[in-house]
Structures are given as C-alpha cells and as structure tokens.
Amino acid sequence: MWRNCVRLARRGLGRGAVLRPAPTVSRCGVVRGLSPAAPCSSLWNSVTWFSQARQLKDYALPNSSWSQGMMDLYSRFLEMCKDGTWKRIPSYSSTIDHIPESLKLTAEKERKETRLFLRNMDLEGVGFEYAMFLNPAEKRMVCLFQPGPYLEGHPGFAHGGSTATIIDSTIGGCAIFVAGRVMTANLSINYRNPIPLGSVVLVDSKVDQIEGRKVFLSCQVRSIDGQTLHAEATALFIQLDSTKSLQQQQMSFQ
Amino acid sequence: MWRNCVRLARRGLGRGAVLRPAPTVSRCGVVRGLSPAAPCSSLWNSVTWFSQARQLKDYALPNSSWSQGMMDLYSRFLEMCKDGTWKRIPSYSSTIDHIPESLKLTAEKERKETRLFLRNMDLEGVGFEYAMFLNPAEKRMVCLFQPGPYLEGHPGFAHGGSTATIIDSTIGGCAIFVAGRVMTANLSINYRNPIPLGSVVLVDSKVDQIEGRKVFLSCQVRSIDGQTLHAEATALFIQLDSTKSLQQQQMSFQ
C-alpha cells in the first residue's frame, strides 16, 4: 500500500484517497478586501530568509525519531519541491522567529522565554514531529505528522487536543499564505478514527473560500495509505490588521 | 472585580458571567441507552481510590508557579467541596492511571513510557497548569486553567490548539461523569478573544443532552472576572463499549 502512495506521489500527488485532488482554486471566488496575494505569499519567503540570517534550528528536518514511513514521505515531498510545485516550510521553537522583523508589532520585538506550543519539548520524538509543505498554486498546506508518546489521550492514541493542534497549525499555515497574519475564529473537527501514537498521518488542508477578511478552509487527516480517515475539519480564519494588537482587533470583528 | 467573583463564589457559584447558572438538568431528557448513572459517577471515586492506593503524584495540586489569582480561585472551589456540592478531580502524568484496573482493557494493563498530553512537561508552570472540579448535580465540570509560556501561539498568547486541548479535556471529564468511558466525536470552537499566557481562565462545561450513546455538551472559557469571553464550544462525545478496543468501536458507530 505504501508503494501505491509513492507511485501516486510521483505522478504529482494524485490519488484522492491519499492526498485529495487539487482544490478548485476558482472556488475561492474573488479575493475581496484581502491584501494582494504577493505580499502574503512572500511572507513564507521572508521567514526562510530571516531564519537563514539568524541560523535558527529548523525542527522540520528529519531526526532519528522519524519512522521509515515518515522519512519516505518526507523524501517524496522534497522531490516534488524541486520544480517549485511544493515548498518546504521551516519550523522553529519560538513563535516570534516565524515573523519577519518588518512585520513584528512593537510588543513582539522583545525576546521572551516562550516556546511555540508544538515545539516545546527538548526531547526528540516524544511530542509533535511534523513537517509542512505548501502548494501555492493549489492554496494547499500538507503536514506529515508523527505523534509521539507524550501526546497521549486514550491509552496508545493521540489526544484529541493534539489532533486539534496539528490541524489548527496546518490549516493556519494555509491561511497565512493567502492572508498574511491571521487568527482562528472557528475550528470544527469531526473525529473519525483515533490516531495511534507513533503512526504517521497526513494533514491535508486547503483554502475553500475567501470573503473580505474571512478565510474559509477545510482539512482531512488520513493514514499515509489513504485508507483511514482519522479526522476532518472546517475552519474560519480572520485576517489581522497589522497595525493593531491581537486583543484590539479580535474584539473589533465580533 | 476579583472580590465580586469571590463573593459570588461564596454564594455557591452564582453570577452568570463568571460561572453560568446551573444547567437545567432536565434538558438532558431521558437518559436512554446509557449505563446507569451510578457506575459512571463512581468512576471518579474509583480513580481517587486507585491513585491513593498507588500513591501517584497528583498534578492538580497547587505549586509555586500558580499565580495568586489561580490560588485564590482554587481555594474557593476547595471550600465549596466541603459540603459535597463540588468534587476536586485528581490528575496524573499517565493516562492509564486515570483508569481503574477493573475497567482497563487487556492491552491497557501493560505500563508504557507514554504521558498524558496535558501533563507531559517536567518543569512546573511552563505548560498546562490546571485543576478540575466536578458538580455532579449540575452535570458540570469546571477547570481553572493557567497557560504557561510553552503553550504559545501568537506571541504572548495561548495557542488555539492548547485552548482546544483544555476544552476537550474539561468537557470530556464532564462526559465521563455521565457516560463512563467516552470518545470525542465532534468539537466545534468559536475563538472570541485570545488568552494571554500566564493569565487564569475558567473553562466551564456542562452536559446539555444525552441521546443513547451520544452525549452533547457545551463550554465557555472566560476570564476569572467573567468580563471576557475567550472561547465557547460545543461537543459530541460517544459512550464506548468497554468490551471493544478503541479502534473497533470508533469504526462501528460511523
């Protein structure tokens, strides 16, 4: 079954069951009220440049805890990055390091002893092991996710909150691509089948529609052979006003 | 404003804005198809007894990282436990220690190097600091939650996934009370205002309705003065068949 996945990946990520067909980008309709697409998509480029300049540790690179399944899938996606169809997204332990200096609010310029929730463990392999890839043309973000033994909910399975977290982050990354800085307004998840700890799943998210500052997205979490649907979700993200603090603008749109 | 909260707490947890009025238990309708209430509610008693027998560390007790606001609120709830209206819920680092031996599936009897997602950090105060209290008559579970600096999403604020996690756990605890072993089927969250790291919020959940194996619940996350609504959520939990593995039964009801 793994061979099927690889073969289909070689054909450019086909197979609906494994990775859904490209979302119909035209479903997004007219992008009203959003900043132009170019500055948003270039946010990721800025992040990459910024991290290289500071030589931060990128946690979205393979480590010894990654299973063979995780490694193989990662390699396939890397291969597909070569022609620019997909783009690997780096990941750091501090939230602030994902934001280019030019886009930081004044209060965000001071470094603090905080950590990004998904990168808060010192030990490799016990928490969230993941790597994200962006397909700009399809407005789609995929995350390869291997939940470690410290993410337990029911014995032997990933906690529903950890599944919500990886969905929120993946779908959020997709929203950032089209709208720059965003915030989750709604996240609705249907849990279909529990995710075994140590397994590898694909979190596959896409932009469905954009209306003014609102970005509507959806997501599926499947086993890498595509046979098991673990969860599916819809989300609404709101584009933020870069001149206001998070609290100010969150209050203003409700 | 804190004084208001305390005064109202002394009156037995009134004030809708801080902790909502008791849910109308009659809204639950007839409890059809669920196991009798007694075995479910006695699950918590079994957990307490079990932990005492093994002398496990209870993480839901105050530590030096708790702010004065967290300590004060905790003390008020402890006070309300004295007449049996509320019950403090213990919390351990391993999921398996929350399940009495008599209710464990065969595969769950072997101890593994896993950790409950919310209790996976060795350092006090950096992750999820929380304590839950159950009101059996109101079918209501409240969680006092102080998000630490390692739960960051937007700079300075709790990650949406960490908010989803504490909601899922609190609402899940409420579902366990009425239905024994359960699993999240749907979780829908509206994020209203971001939660500052280091602040204290109240996660207030209740059972709204029970239909066969389905338990419908809702939840609000508010600042301790009740003035700020951070998030609200609805959830559907499914009562599990204790004779089947998690994967078997999750497949069977969908």
Keywords:
seven-stranded antiparallel beta sheet; disordered N terminus; HotDog_dom_sf (chains A, B); 254 residues; alpha+beta; homodimer; THEM4/THEM5_acyl-CoA_thioest (chains A, B); 7 strands
Largest interface: A-B, 57 and 56 residues
Share of helix of chain A, binned? 25-40%
Unreliable segments of chain A (pLDDT under 50, ≥5 consecutive)? Answer: 1-39
Total helical elements of chain A: 5
Shape call of chain A: globular
Strand order of the largest sheet of chain A: 1-2-3-5-6-7-4
Distance between the termini of chain A: 47 Å
In quaternary terms, these chains amount to: homodimer
Q: How would a textbook summarize the main sheet of chain A?
A: 7 strands, antiparallel
- What is the CA-atom radius of gyration of chain A, in angstroms? 18 Å
Topology, number of strands of chain A: 7
Beta-strand content of chain A: 15-25%
Summed over residues and divided by their number, the pLDDT of chain A gives a mean of: 81
Order of helices and strands of chain A: HHHEEEHEEEEH
Topology:
The structure is a homodimer of 254-residue chains.
Chain A (H helix, E strand, L loop, with lengths): L1 H9 L26 H18 L13 H14 L5 E3 L38 E8 L4 E8 L12 H20 L2 E10 L9 E11 L2 E10 L5 E11 L6 H7 L2
Antiparallel strand pairs in A: 1-2, 2-3, 3-5, 4-7, 5-6, 6-7
Helix pairs in contact in A: 1-3, 2-4
